[in-house]
Amino acid sequence: MTGPKPPSDAEEWLSAADCAARTGLTVKALRIYERQGLINPPRSRKGWRRYGRQSSRGSIASSS
Questions:
Q1: Distance of CA 34 to the CA centre of its chain
Q2: What CATH number has the domain bearing residue 27?
Q3: In the chain, is it the N or the C terminus that has fewer CB atoms within a 10 Å radius of its CB?
């Protein structure tokens, strides 16, 4: 299974906390969804999860 397409350069990256706040979920819920394979956020070179504004909204909303 491949992960979501990374946002374009013009699109803003969101942290897990920002993504959780915008979707109404908790960061813990995002981690659980990731462990279950429901979402697969791309990672930065340092290993930080990076959520795209549009991609997170669609994939997470449909998972909850």
A1: 9
A2: 1.10.1660.10
A3: N
Residue 28 lies in a domain: yes
pLDDT digits (tens, 9 = 90+) for 4-56: 555 554 467 899 999 999 999 999 999 999 999 999 999 989 999 999 865 54
Residue 21's Cα: distance from chain center in Å? Answer: 12
* Rounded distance between C-alpha atoms, residue 1 and residue 60, angstroms: 16
Among residues 34, 47, 44, 63, which one has the least CA distance to residue 23? 63
Alpha carbons 21 and 44: distance in angstroms, whole number: 20
CA neighbor of 14 nearest in space, from 46, 42, 50: 50
On whether residue 36 sits in a domain, the answer given is: yes
